[in-house]
Each structure stands twice: as C-alpha cells, then as structure tokens.
Amino acid sequence: MKYVLLSLLCLGIFSACKQEEKKTEEVKPLVKLQSVTTQPVAQTYDFTGTVEPFNENKIAPSAPLRISRILVEIGDFVKAGQVVARMDKAQYAQQKAQLENLKTTYERIKNLYEVGGISKHELDQAETALVIQRTAVANLDENSDLRSPIAGTVTQRNYDNGDMYSGAVPVIVVQQLNPVKVLINVTEELFPRLSQGMSVELRLDVYPGQVFSGKVHLIHPTIDVNTHTFIVEVSIPNNDLKVRPGMFGRVTISLGTLDHVVVPDRAVIKQAGSDERFVYIYNTQDSTVVRKVLQLGRRLNDAYEVVSGIESNTQVVVAGQTRLVDGMRADVQK
C-alpha cells in the first residue's frame, strides 16, 4: 500500500510538470513586423581636410646676399613676374666688371692663337673661364631682382631692408588663394569611381550653413602604404577670398544612387561587446524568427541603408525583440 501511494504521488507530480511545460511552450513572444523594400540611395561620401593655397612660392636668392629693399607687404597682391625685392648689387657689379676683363683677355688670346702665338689648350682655358664667369654674372643678375613666378598674395615677409639673407627662411612667400585646394584621403574602394572634374561641395566650420562648390582637380596615382588611401586634390573657386588656408572643412562627393534595401532603425540591434548589427526576420511558414547579421551603409534619418544581409520584401521585427532568440516561434501583433 505504501508503494502504491508513492507511485500515485510521483505520477501526479510528473503530470503537473508536463502540464506546466506545455503551458510554457505555448507562451510565445508578441512581435510587430514591417516589410523592407529596395530604394534608390544617394551615394554621398564625406571627407575632412584643411584648406591649402592652390600654389605657393618661397622666393629667395640662390646665395647669401644683403637685401637692398623689399617692395611688398603682407597682404599685397602681386602679378606673375613682378619684382618683390631687390638685393644688393655690389657683388653683381664686381663680377660684371670681371666678365668684361675676361672678354678682353679672350679676344687677345684668340688673336694670338690665330697667328700661331699660343696653343689650342691655352685658348680653350680662356674660353672656359669666360663661360664660367658669364654663368656667374647671369645668376647674380637673376638674383638681384627677386620676382614672383606666380600671381598671388604675399603671406610672409621674413626680412627687413638691409638684412643679410641667411638661407634659413625665404625672403617672401606668395600664395595663390584663388582657387584654393583641399587634400582628402580616399579609400581603395572609391578610387576607381572618381575622375577629374567631378563636382564636390565644401562646408567650413567657420561658415555654418554655407556651401562652396568645387571640383576634383587631381587624383594622385599611387597609394599611401600606411593608410591604404589615395590623395585627391579638390579645387574651390575663391573669388571673394572668404576661404583661407588653414580652415578646417568637410568635402562631400556624390557618386549617384544605388538600389539598396532600407531597414527601419528600430529593427536594428547592436550586439553587445562588438560592432555587429543584426535584425530578426520573420518566417511565415513556421512562425519562427531568424537572426540576420547586416552590413550597414549610411544612416537615412530613421532608417539604415543595408549593403548586404537581407533581401527586399523581407519582414523584419520592429518591436518585441528583447525576448527573442534565434529560431524561436513568435506571434505577430495584428
């Protein structure tokens, strides 16, 4: 009798557990779904960079000379070929006088050679000395009046009248400020899609809300082995000179549109401890949810561009994800 009671008790406990297990299995999370579709997504890319002069020339003589007079001030606009400084011409005068003496000497030696008075070697020596002196005089002549090779604005004046040019810094620096340029670093993926002349937009922190238009001016042909990026120069017209070297800005390049799936941001879940993003999609055949890892593109207001991970017309869970696990059955909120 004792064993019969014990058996009945165990049977009752087993039956109760089975009923509780069945009840638990029947409780399914309630989720809300939304169908995702393919949409044309603008392929715009943003890059940061610092404004630089389009060209820069550091003007200085080729040898130490005393500065006679500087003819420009910082902020002055100069034309290409304009004299910006004059150097002391005392050395030039001495070398030119020596050149005249060598010319006379050479003519005398040449006459002697023609009548057999000296050897060909002596004539050649006199001619070589004359050529060397002509080069020295021409070099001093070129360095007596320092000219700007470009049209631009004087941004540095590092000496005063009467100073001795030491070679440490240039006498004058001229920068071309119209246009200006910004150097950006472009990934290998984007490099084949860029071409010279493409339109760009520049936004500067100093001018919030204002957009400056420009174009791709130069694409460097080699990659930086450290960053695995290509340097691209964009030029920005600067007629009013509002954009100045040193300003920090953001360059935007538009590469048209691509048809990609767009998923609502409330469906996307970030995996804790990593940068992985995923969604739960709903399988209508067996009422289960499946975890799908996504490769996201750009943020589009309250949605994300999906580069890969799910197909168009897929139903994703947008509410009730907290209780879900991969493969679980779920009820859909009507």
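the 2nd protein, sequnce then structure:
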Amino acid sequence: MSQFDAYAADYDAALNRGLSLSGESREYFATERVKWVSRCLAELSARPTRVLDFGSGTGGTCPELLRQLDADRVVGVDASLESLNAARRVHVDSRLEFRTIQEMGSAGPFDLVYCNGVFHHVPPLERPAVLAGIRRSLADDGYFAFWENNPWNPATRLVMSRIPFDRDAKLISPPRARSLLARAGFDVLRTDFLFFFPRLLAALRPLEIRLSRIPAGAQYLVLCRKLEC
C-alpha cells in the first residue's frame, strides 16, 4: 500500500492549502510546468506523441499534457491504487490511460516521460533503479522532463512544511539531480528554474524566461534525452 493511498481523496485540497501562500492553485503550477516543457521541446523541434506521466497521482496534469503537447496518448502511472482510481473517475478521455508503475513497461515506449515532484519521495538508494525503469520505458532518443522542488528556495521549504505528505521529503539539489540523471544514462540538455514570483507580483512573471538560469525559482526542470547504450 502506497503512503499516498491515504491522501487520494484529499490530495488536491492538501496541496492547495500549502500552495495558498503563493496565491496560486495546483492547476496554475501544472499548466505552467507543461507550458515550459512544451516551449523547450519546440526549440528542439521535438513533438512527442506518446507521453508518460510518471507519478501522476490523481491525474491532474495528464489533460494538460494532452492539450499543450497535442499528444496522441498520455499514460499516467503511480504507486497509489487509490490515486489511480480517483484519476480514472475524474479524467475520462480515450487518449488517457492510468496504470500502476508495475505496468509501465508494457505501456511504452514513450517519446517523453514527464515527472514532477516524485523523486523527493523516493528513498535515495532506490533512485537509480527508478531512473533505470524510466529509461527503459523511453523510445530511442526519447526525452525526460524531470521537475523537482528547489531546496535552495526558502519559500519552497515553507510550502512543503505545510503539506502533510511533503514534510519529511528528501529534497534533491539541481547538481545532484543532474549527476543522478547522467549516471542513469541520460544526456542532460538544460536546467531551468521557474516560479520566482507569487501572484502578488504576477506583473513580473514575464521576466521569468530571462531569469530561468538563476537557481532561485521554487522549482527546477532538468530536461534530458535518453542516450544510446
């Protein structure tokens, strides 16, 4: 039984209570993360049609992946059966599918794996094995969009302290994430930082494109590509 089974019914509400300090909801951050990934992939002339949301939870990001990436198919996988059941009830679309992580291999290969805020819940010694599974699920030259919470941002730590399932998480620094990914057989293409300004300062958000290489945003993206064996 996953620790997140107990939070499946209240997951979004608990997350939004923590995020309320920013003045934004979970939906805002999900939309902006996918928008950023879409922009990065467009710069690489990449159009992923088969997408995996690794650690999809209750499935809130999967419709954004369909819409913004114009994907043909999105598969969400998670360790929490209760979260998957909630996702199936809420998100009904012939292009969407929700499976357990154990079923991930038979669902691929994928052009893109998207993952947000998952690895700070994975015990450090288990992270290489999880990354190996993700790599196997990717098609040749497939992309991996690895989002994590930035431990160098005090506001991030404050928000996480207000969310029950995030309080004891083991955050990963950007250099550590890049090292893990490189050792797992990925070519690290870029690291971007996002979410510098709360809603109160939303007028400044157009500056985030210029600030994205400054390691101060609330979250960061490591975009990488699967290397050939």
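The chain has a mean pLDDT of 93. The chain is about 35% helix and 25% strand.
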